[in-house]
Design brief:
Elements lengths: L6 H5 L2 E5 L4 H12 L3 E6 L2 H15 L3 E5 L5 H10 L5 E6 L14 H29 L2 E6 L12 H21 L4 E6 L7 H5 L14 H11 L5 E2 L3 H12 L2 H16 L2
Parallel strand pairs: 1-2, 1-4, 2-3, 4-5, 5-6, 6-7
Bound molecules: NADP nicotinamide-adenine-dinucleotide phosphate.
NADP nicotinamide-adenine-dinucleotide phosphate (NAP) binds next to helix 2 and helix 7.
Length: about 270
């Protein structure tokens, strides 16, 4: 789908992208810069953000600012909100997140708590702050990166799937609440995507039936859905699988999801 020539007018001049140091967030930042939107890049890995900011300034002539923050830390989140108060942000991409795979009781408590803090708490508070700012501007957009994991309970990844279901419903609710005020909200629900994420959780790409999507295609699908849809699932095979999941009894869909996790991780 060709992107709208007025993208910058609708959602610029600045966007805030969380999780911009790699994967889908990095691809979102590149795609925004190509659409002439300046970017504030948030993640923990300072050097990567700084390198990306230099590249985007050089290649696209936009402004780019690196903001190092651990979004699991409530004080760091407040600092991000303070640092960006004066920036004319028209678009929030709440993309930072991570998952895990393995038996629930074997997961470290701290890791589960951090996952909820990053995937749900930080996402909610960022949306709360930026929705207020966008309402004051009278236009803008918010994208929340959810997942196809959001559509069913998932054995061996139960907490991650639950955080992504939270993200999906948050975006869907805000879509309908904020649309009358000129704010476009979309839930981006990628399936397996070729980033550091799957490798970190023990996924063997060779065992993923339809392969992993390119993060650039995922990023474009998300940005192009703004103002058009409440939920976007990139890739025909992912759309089909979500459609099938919704048609199946919930228990069957959940068991199939667990079987898929075992297959791709060898659990
Ligand atoms: N890849 C997939 O198959 C897939 C499928 C569905 C949904 N998703 C979702 O897509 C989003 C992006 O993931 P990805 O696949 O692109 O993986 P990724 O390459 O690992 O990117 C995750 C990003 O989140 C940032 N992040 C993680 N914890 C953070 C924290 N505590 N504070 C600040 N930033 C943090 C990471 O930066 P630092 O490490 O530098 O902090 C990184 O920039 C996630 O929400 C994920 O759930 C991915």
């Amino acid at each position: 789908m060709p992107h709208r020539p007025d993208f910058r007018e609708l959602y610029g001049p600045w966007a805030l992208v969380t999780g911009a140091s790699s994967g889908i967030g990095e691809a979102l930042a590149r795609e925004l810069a190509a659409r002439r939107v300046s970017v504030a890049l948030v993640a923990r890995r300072e050097a990567r953000l700084a390198r990306l900011a230099v590249e985007l300034r050089r290649d696209h002539g936009v402004e780019a600012r690196a903001i190092t923050a651990d979004l699991a830390d409530p004080r760091a989140l407040e600092a991000v909100l303070d640092d960006t108060r004066e920036l004319p942000v028209g678009l929030l991409l709440a993309n930072a997140g991570f998952g895990d795979k393995g038996p629930f009781v074997a997961r470290p408590r701290d890791e589960l708590a951090r996952m909820i803090d990053v995937n749900c708490r930080a996402t909610t508070l960022l949306c709360h702050a930026f929705a207020g700012r966008l309402l004051a501007r009278g236009r803008g957009g918010i994208m929340i990166t959810s997942s196809t994991a959001a559509f069913q309970g998932t054995p061996l990844s139960a907490v991650y799937a639950a955080t992504k279901a939270f993200d999906l419903l948050l975006a869907e609710g805000l879509h309908h609440e904020l649309a009358p005020h000129g704010i476009d909200v979309v839930a981006l629900c990628p399936g397996g995507t070729d980033t550091e994420g799957p490798a970190r959780t023990g996924v063997d790409p060779a065992k993923v039936p339809m392969g992993l999507m390119n993060p650039r295609d995922v990023a474009r699908a998300g940005l192009d859905a703004l103002g058009r849809e409440a939920i976007v699932v990139p890739g025909a095979h992912n759309k089909l699988s979500v459609f099938a999941t919704r048609a199946l009894p919930r228990g069957v869909a959940s068991q199939l999801a667990g079987r898929m996790i075992r297959r791709v991780t060898g659990e």
